[in-house]
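Exercise 3.2. Students should predict the tertiary structure of the chain below and write it as structure tokens, then compare their answer with the key that follows.

Predict this chain's 3D structure.
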Amino acid sequence: MTRRSGPIAATALAAALLLSACGGGGEESGAASAPAAPAAEAGGPLDLSGVCPATVVLQQDWQPEAEHGSMYSLIGPDYTIDADAKSVTGSLVTQGVDTGVDVEVRPGGPNVGFQPVPALMYLDDAITLGAVNSDAALAGFAEQPTVAVASQLTVSPQILMWDPESHPGATTIREVAAAGTPVVTAGDIIPALLVNRGIIQQSQVDTSYEGTPARFVSEPTILQQGFATAEPYVYENEISQWGRPVGFEPLANYGYSIYPEPLAVRADKLEELRPCLQKLVPIMQQSQIDYLADPAPTNRLIVELVEAYQTGWSYSAGVAEYSAKAQVEQGFVHDDPASGVFGQLDPARMQEIVSTFGPILQAQGTITEIPDPTSLYTNDFVDPNIKMGTP
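Answer key:
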């Protein structure tokens, strides 16, 4: 499975624009001249001191990118980058005020040996919240159970993409796949879903995807995994060997119903962190909305972090801007349709996720038992008054 669909492997963007790793490291500070934010009202909803850890640690599942903007947008102007540890820490600032605690955001993927976020959360007790895809939560529930407390991306931007010139007139995955086209992915969850849904045959499954654009460029008849908020821009604008649009369709149209990267807490720490989560989760709900309303400052930080970490991952200001727009314009971030609340997890959808992916993971030997969906999430901390105002 890919970084955005469970246990992690690299994707197209990861290696499409490889930089040579230059080494180096240490710590560097953010803009020293930036004014400090005023303190939140003592005891008010934005004052996290005394109820949250002195440093709220947020663990992402991949390299810094705009899909993670809600986390990075919380980092105050006094931030420090640790290029060796691959982390950034600063005052936790939201809605223009300092919450009285610090926030540390850690990337995932190659920075942590491609370990799934639930495994990281159980290895390091300091992690407050992790970005845990719904299928990753299912895969880890027996040994590393996590509880999702809020959605950030509402619909998965995971796609299959194709070359319009090789498949003239095709507008859907189903149409392209009908010709027996190889479906190239980095893991087996997506093809297993498509086989189960009758979209492809087992003979079309190819899990050899290594995250580079080389095969798509040289064999443009294939279907290849990607992200709607990245690869279409990258292939057209930043891969010189391609340099033209790609066709694509979200896998959500075919039952890929997971919540992508919802915020989750370790199940055994839920009660301990309850006082913190009562204040922190609404802040996280609002931070996503605020980031998408004005992504430029956070995008600059994300690009700076990528450059500082020097892991071979390349991420431009152009793709960050494209991603933030695509998240909204293509409908990947919106209010929960069932409740109208941003960040709320829909019980019916959670049941659908478990019913869809539980048997797949069981058949693959990843899990032995399928959990009750209610054990995987809670809406206890979601503020029902926070809404984007979108359908």
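Discussion points: The radius of gyration is 20 Å. Residues 295 and 324 are 7 Å apart (CA to CA).
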